[in-house]
Amino acid sequence: MDSKFQRVNSDENDSPIQFSPKEQWRIWKNVLVVGFAFMLQFTAFWGASNLQSSVNAEASLGTFTLAAIYGSLILSNIFLPVIVIRWLGVKWTICLAFLVYVPFIMAQFYPRFYTMIPAGLAVGFGGGPLWCAKCTYLTILSEAYAKVTGVGADITVTRFFGVFFLFYQFSQVWGNLISSAVLSSEGPAVAALSNSTLNNITFADVFNVSTATRNSEEICGANFCPGTVVEAIPNLAPPSTSKINTITGIYLACMIAAVLAVAFGVDSVKRYDQGRKGSGSDISGLRLLAVIVKQLANPYQILILPITMFIGAEQAFLAADFTSAFVSCGWGISNIGFVMICFGVCNGIASIFIGGIIKITGRSPVVCLALSLHVALIVTLLVWKPSEQAKLTFFIIAGLWGFCDAIWLVQINSLYGILFPGKEEAAYSNFRLWESTGSVITYIYSPYLCIDVKLSLLLCLLIIGACGYTAVEVIEWKGKDGELGGKREFKLVKSGEKEKSLEVAD
Question: Source organism's superkingdom (predicted)?
């Protein structure tokens, strides 16, 4: 028997394992390696995703690929996590899911519908088990750490998830930094142009450049429509194949490194799993689907559906439309990464501090701030004419958008937990379902509508969502008797009781 462990009594099947105090450092090692591996993995994924609508713009290939990812993610979240984790275990589920993302990166070497769409579907199907396995692993580690140190498990799990998301949020920074650094570097074609053709520039060439600048202000932004040709906006010209291949190679190396980090640097969950069964509720896919549908009968669930869909829609708009119609069209594809770095940094910082702010101000003022700010951003995008002369504006809009996105994610996620205690599986499955639905719908109509129409639809969805959210807050504030409102009492629910509560209608 390992010297680090000892049994409390002779029954090895029922006895808990007691860890040496030094085990806490090994637990922290596992947390840090998992966080680092996810940072590597999503450095590649987010870096490639943010370029799709601009680099693979022909026939809207990139946008349809993103739609395929989120479409399959809906089914994956419902049917696959429990099955895959039972089959492989938590650690190897993470490794396999990482590998499932690899074809998406490899397809960038040869982007066609028959390579990109299947690869996108694979990413979505791998996403459900991946995130469920990650949550399960960190939760089990937090329980073991609490036994070693005596710190409460609720405090420990919050600390571990905070460290994890600190790593995860930085993936936006590194992924976009890699893409912009490569795309903005001067290639052979540019050098050849500067050496051989600058002496032959005529007055007509200068006139055409100024016309292109003028056209960019007229065509980009809210006026941008699918099918805008490269000849009209030179900024939309795709990067050279060699640069795309360089970026793809770097991203591929990141994903392989992530798989190796988990495979060789992370302990099996069996080391810390002391009789803990399943990945949470142990509910099968079909049964979870039935619970999700039953949850829709709850009036609160209906009221917060629009704002949940808005979260997915605004994220999809930023990834597919803001990057192409504003940044790429108005400033250039090579600058997408720099602008999205600003979004990622502001999103991460806001996610960390928003909880502390809410303790001081309460939930409603923060949500009102996000609502006002997001309405102002959408209106600004409707009237703003993006151009290279307004570089700072790109960063301000992306940063404020990231700030708002962080508020919506934190507040609506926590609201689901507050409104539906003891029914977390159904509640958070509905959150993932309708958030992904908002993203899929936005990606699907993206190739067919102009930006002003998309912004108008986004604004309408935000207003409807805000009305539903306000209705929930008003009902809670009035404290009506019965199912809606009233004082809520929160308590820990045993797994058997939780499973039973899921079967009872509201």
Answer: Eukaryota
Alpha-carbon distance of 12 to 501, in angstroms, equals: 32
Instruction: Report how far apart, in Å, the C-alpha atoms of 4 and of each of 1, 13, 17, 22, 271 are.
Output: 8, 18, 10, 8, 11
**pTM flag (> 0.70):** yes
Instruction: Give phi and psi for 17, each to the nearest 5.
Output: -95, 135
Cα-based angle 392, 228, 335 (whole degrees, multiple of 5): 30
CA distance 247 to 46: 12
> What are the angstrom distances between the C-alpha of 440 and each of 129, 249, 413, 451?
19, 28, 20, 17
3-state secondary structure of 315: helix
- Residue ranges covered by each domain of the chain: 21-186+214-271+283-486
CA–CA separation, 316 vs 66, rounded Å? 9
User: Angle 238-378-371 (CA atoms, 0-180°, nearest 5)?
Assistant: 135
Neighbouring CB atoms inside 10 A of 154's CB total 11
Residue holding tokens 């990945």? 279
H helical segments located in 111-224: 113-149, 153-184, 188-196, 203-219
Element (H, E) at 416: helix 391-419
Contact 402, 29 (CB under 8 A): no
- What are the distances in angstroms from CA 64 to CA 49, 312, 410? 12, 16, 28
Query: Could you give the angle at the alpha carbon of 441 between the alpha carbons of 379 and 472, nearest 5°?
Result: 70
Amino acid at 472: V
Determine the topology of domain 21-186+214-271+283-486 in CATH.
Answer: Growth Hormone; Chain: A; (1.20.1250)
Here the tokens at position 30 are 């596992």
How would you class 359 by CB atoms within 10 Å of its CB: exposed for 0-12, middle for 13-18, buried for 19 or more? exposed
Rounded-to-integer distance, Cα 123 and Cα 67, Å: 11
